[in-house]
């Protein structure tokens, strides 16, 4: 209840802050209460208590196959973005590269263009013009929007690591490869972990790209849920949402315990 | 010694070019079955035809209202947390950041539960006898602004927080010691010095709001069309590539415009103060 003291001291600021928290949090609480409601439609107050909607959500084939697709896509796109992004970050920070700021700008450029626009470009040019499948287009698109995170977040932790340590290892006779794997990589580990976590969550939750690059064969969970909400008005979706909320809380706790929330998100707006 | 070879950059550069830059340019110059230049003709038409102008206007308007709302609610949260000495401040900050990890679809669905015809707010209004029937809340501008504020408020809080945290609290004390009221200290010291954070917040929130699809789709319905829902319709429903590409161009320019203006505005301000 840290806000109580400043609230008393600063009535206007305190009121605005409370309103802000209400708008951020209260709708989520209503989703959870709906998930346990015995009523057949989404309504308030909840009618009775049941766990049936969780059964319905877990037994829903389109949700479960979409969940699998989203996990797969998020894992592969994250791995790809890191595999491409980490070496590039090291080269940008430690190497002497002509036109460094242009290169850096290029790597961050997918962040500047709206994701919906990236989705349209890939849909048109990769799926329609080149005729490639939507899973390929999705992987390219997701990796492209994750690259800026990978470069930024690992770059931030690389900037903190002293290059002299690596040089000392080389001076003591370690090969460049050995110096990299035994000195640089461990220094980068928190950065890489943060980038991986942020990338996975970003890809898993992504709507714009998955929306434009959708196909019957490979559908992601957010798009499947959007369709379901538009066509049905029962609490199954609330139960699915509550399950996602629980999983997100677990991810958040892992993030807080390992590197700390603020550090992970510090990388977003620098 | 630590000169890393430039070829480490190569996979990334190739990927950005093939997977992002070239398709984006091709989308403007050569959509399938559309001759070069048609996208720009359609772009010009959209800037003059009333139907498209209304949608551009709504996107800009609701985007700006959302941005201002997020700043008005987000700055106080950031300021109170940055200046708080409570041991729970970290927990409150985590609570403000946590929603960013949660799916937009889940967060937006909450408003359907709250604002729907059988939702909590409607039930409350009729229950208290304030109105005989629950007012239409869903599919209104209000619903869209509330939904977008929920989604993007955490971005405003983080940006403002890192800016306020860099303003030395000693300056607050100095201003107060010289006789300024707390309100005056906030307006003349803390706010101008946090201007860079406010610019970042404005850019991030407006970019999110002007391109959000989930919110206008679920909470705005067919009466609140915005550029994002139009782009999807042109691309995946009516398959009108020239219009889809032109809408994408308008959307991108709108985001650039507001982001550029906000940093210009803050530069002018910091010169004054």
Write the CATH architecture name of the domain at 50-100 and 139-272 in chain B.
Orthogonal Bundle
Whole-angstrom Rg of chain B = 23 Å
Overall residue-averaged pLDDT value of chain A? 87
Number of strands of chain A: 0
Helix/strand structural class of chain A? mainly alpha
The unreliable regions of chain B are none
- Helix coverage percent of residues of chain A? over 70%
Membrane topology (chain B): Multi-pass membrane protein
Subcellular location (chain B): Cell membrane
Transmembrane segments (chain B): 60-81, 93-114, 142-164, 185-213, 241-265
Protein name (chain B): ABC transporter permease
Write the layout of secondary structure elements.
The complex is a heterodimer of chains A (270) and B (273).
Chain A (H helix, E strand, L loop, with lengths): L3 H6 L1 H25 L16 H7 L2 H34 L5 H13 L2 H15 L4 H27 L2 H9 L4 H30 L2 H5 L8 H11 L4 H23 L2 H6 L4
Chain B lengths: L9 H20 L8 H9 L3 H34 L5 H9 L6 H12 L4 H8 L13 H25 L3 H9 L4 H12 L1 H17 L2 H7 L6 H11 L3 H32 L1
Summarize the structure.
Chain A is mainly alpha-helical. Chain A has helices at residues 4-9, 11-35, 52-58, 61-94, 100-112, 115-129, 134-160, 163-171, 176-205, 208-212, 221-231, 236-258, 261-266. Chain A contains 13 helices and no strands.
Provide an overview of this structure.
The complex is a heterodimer of chains A (270) and B (273). Chain A is mostly helical. Chain A has 2 domains: 4-35, no CATH class; 59-232 and 254-266, MetI-like (MetI-like fold). Chain A has helices at 4-9, 11-35, 52-58, 61-94, 100-112, 115-129, 134-160, 163-171, 176-205, 208-212, 221-231, 236-258, 261-266. In chain A, helix 2 crosses helix 12, helix 3 (52-58) packs across helix 12 (236-258) and helix 6 crosses helix 7. Chain A starts with a helix and ends with a helix. In chain A, 48% of the residues are buried. Residues 1-8 of chain A have low confidence and may be disordered. With 273 residues, chain B is mostly helical. Chain B has a domain at 50-100 and 139-272: MetI-like fold. The radius of gyration of chain B is 23 Å and the shape is globular. The model of chain B has no long low-confidence stretch (mean pLDDT 91). Helices cover 75% and strands 0% of the residues of chain B. Chain B starts with 9 loop residues before the first helix and ends with a helix. Chain A: Keywords: Cell inner membrane, Cell membrane, Membrane, Transmembrane, Transmembrane helix, Transport.
């Amino acid at each position: 209840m840290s806000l109580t003291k400043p609230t008393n001291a600063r009535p206007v600021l305190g009121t605005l802050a409370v309103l802000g928290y209400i708008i951020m949090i209260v709708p989520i609480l209503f989703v959870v209460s709906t998930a346990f409601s015995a009523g057949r439609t989404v309504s308030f107050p909840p009618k009775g208590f049941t766990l049936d909607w969780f059964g319905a959500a877990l037994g829903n084939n389109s949700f479960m196959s979409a969940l699998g697709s989203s996990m797969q896509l998020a894992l592969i796109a994250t791995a790809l973005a890191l595999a491409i992004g980490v070496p590039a970050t090291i080269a940008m920070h430690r190497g002497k590269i002509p036109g460094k700021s242009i290169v850096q700008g290029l790597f961050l450029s997918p962040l500047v263009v709206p994701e919906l626009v990236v989705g349209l470009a890939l849909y048109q040019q990769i799926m329609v013009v080149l005729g490639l499948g939507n899973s390929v287009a999705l992987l390219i698109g997701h990796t492209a929007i994750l690259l800026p995170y990978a470069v930024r977040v690992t770059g931030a932790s690389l900037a903190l690591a002293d290059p002299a340590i690596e040089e000392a290892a080389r001076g003591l006779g370690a090969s460049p490869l050995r110096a990299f794997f035994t000195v640089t990589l461990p220094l980068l580990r928190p950065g890489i972990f943060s980038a991986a976590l942020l990338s996975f969550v970003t890809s898993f939750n992504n709507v714009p790209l998955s929306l434009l690059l959708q196909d019957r064969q490979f559908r992601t969970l957010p798009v499947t849920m959007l369709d379901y909400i538009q066509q049905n008005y029962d609490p199954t979706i609330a139960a699915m949402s509550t399950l996602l909320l629980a999983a997100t809380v677990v991810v958040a706790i892992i993030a807080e315990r390992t590197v700390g929330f603020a550090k992970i998100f510090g990388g977003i707006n620098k | 010694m630590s000169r890393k070879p430039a070829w480490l950059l190569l996979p990334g550069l190739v990927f950005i070019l093939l997977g992002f830059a070239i398709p984006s340019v091709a989308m403007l110059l050569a959509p399938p079955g559309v001759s070069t230049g048609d996208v720009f003709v359609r772009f010009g038409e959209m800037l003059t035809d009333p139907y498209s102008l209304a949608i551009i206007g709504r996107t800009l308007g609701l985007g700006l209202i959302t941005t201002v709302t997020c700043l008005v609610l987000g700055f106080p949260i950031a300021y109170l947390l940055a200046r708080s000495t409570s041991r729970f401040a970290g927990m409150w900050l985590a609570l403000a950041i946590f929603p960013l990890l949660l799916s937009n679809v889940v967060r937006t669905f909450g408003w359907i539960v709250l604002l729907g015809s059988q939702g909590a707010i409607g039930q409350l209004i009729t229950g208290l006898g304030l109105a005989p029937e629950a007012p239409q809340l869903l599919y209104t501008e209000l619903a869209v602004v509330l939904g977008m504020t929920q989604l993007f408020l955490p971005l405003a809080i983080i940006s403002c927080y890192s800016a306020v945290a860099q303003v030395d609290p000693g300056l607050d004390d100095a201003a107060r010691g010289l006789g300024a009221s707390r309100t005056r200290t906030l307006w003349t010291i803390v706010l101008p010095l946090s201007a860079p954070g406010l610019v970042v917040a404005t850019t991030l929130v407006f970019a999110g709001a002007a391109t959000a699809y989930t919110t206008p789709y679920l909470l705005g319905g067919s009466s609140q069309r915005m550029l994002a829902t139009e782009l999807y319709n042109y691309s995946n429903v009516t398959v009108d590539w020239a219009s889809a590409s032109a809408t994408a161009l308008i959307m991108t320019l709108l985001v650039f415009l507001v982001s550029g203006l906000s940093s210009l505005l803050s530069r002018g301000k910091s010169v004054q103060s």
